[in-house]
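ok so dumb question maybe but i'm new to this and my supervisor (M.) told me to 'just get the structure for Two-component system response regulator GlrR' and walked off. so i did the thing. is this what she meant?? sequence i used:
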Amino acid sequence: MTADKAHILLVDDDPSLLKLLSLRLESGGYQVTCAHDGRSALECLKRYPPDLVISDLRMDEMDGMDLFGHIQQANPGLPVIIITAHGSIPEAVSATRQGVFGFLPKPVEKQELFRIIEEALSQSAPQCDDTWRREIITHSAKMEQILEQARRVAVSDVSVLVTGPSGAGKELLARAIHKASTRRDKPFVAINCGALPEQLLESELFGHAKGAFTGATSEHEGLFQAANGGTLFLDEVGDMPLAVQVKLLRALQERQIRPLGATHHVDIDVRIISATHRDLETAMENTEFREDLYYRLNVVNLRLPSLQERPEDIPMLARHHLARAAERHKPSVKGFSRDAMAMLASAPWPGNVRQLVNVVEQCVALTPTPMISEAQVAQALSHEAQGIPSFNDARAEFEKTYLSKVLKLTEGNVTQAAKIAGRNRTDFYKLLNRHDLEAAMFKESKSAG
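this is what came out, is it supposed to look like this??
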């Protein structure tokens, strides 16, 4: 990153030093934003994210290390340089161990200042263009903040957990992080952990030897090996069975896997990005997700907003996907009428971007005119509301209906219901918790009838 493009946030409660350093940096070709205390600096971070922060260690109210702590939470991967007095050098050494990029002793020497800045910038910016995020269509401030965090965390090898509602674009963000990383020339491999039964999921992830189980007629290389050197994306990781969670944790700790039925271990070099729409903290409380694995996967958490949280993106997304659909199927379709676009913008979008894409494609396929009308949008929205749910949503609905039926049949007797379901009581209670069901509800309804 060149000096004339780099943006530095300078934080110091000494006005004279702040002015001196600001002039020095601007003369070196950097863009500089000044903040006179930690709280002002945090506001600047939200409005205009910098490429680097330089902060004094000793400041009133919020010192440099407190500010660094806030920066780590809000902008993981953003490099921070701390300015210290000579007597604070031991503290500065400790700070570098906590993740601060480096420190500068007072008085700040000009050549050393530029040297450490260039070193920090060279390690924090893998690419100077936006090709890595080209597939993500947005001008939402919330999304831009997420993408800025994604760009910064991409250069490190830490595990990232992407959370947010179904259809919000979690895999798209994972692919963008991969493209912005040093692993971008290696494979990106994705798997939906909620779509496969336990043994098949384990085989897909870790591979298996010939004869490992019935039907294993040949050796199979798992996705960890297929993604070696690159990125493995674990979608819906919250639905991963506990037995597979144990094996995944061991693989991440040891950087080795052992295929099913094999006697040898295989070294792996894989960056993990995972995603879920589930509340993993609640899943941990219900012993459905391992706490140690959660902290391995959730080194950095990026939460994608729902489409309702970024309504300013709806027209842009609609036009983008209309152009793509028209190019593939019907080039005569040119756009939406004003009323049609207004209806799109005001729709609730429970299925988020995925639902919007489906609606746009239906409109393009069914419209007889170059401009899509309000009535055609209304029809597509109606069809979408009655459409086929996702696999995970359908399975969840089936589970809840099934549990309700066996509890109603047994008048809320969990022991009998678990026996009918072929589950032990502990597993059955976990299923009830997952679907917010209580046995007492069915006892009361029975006695009332």
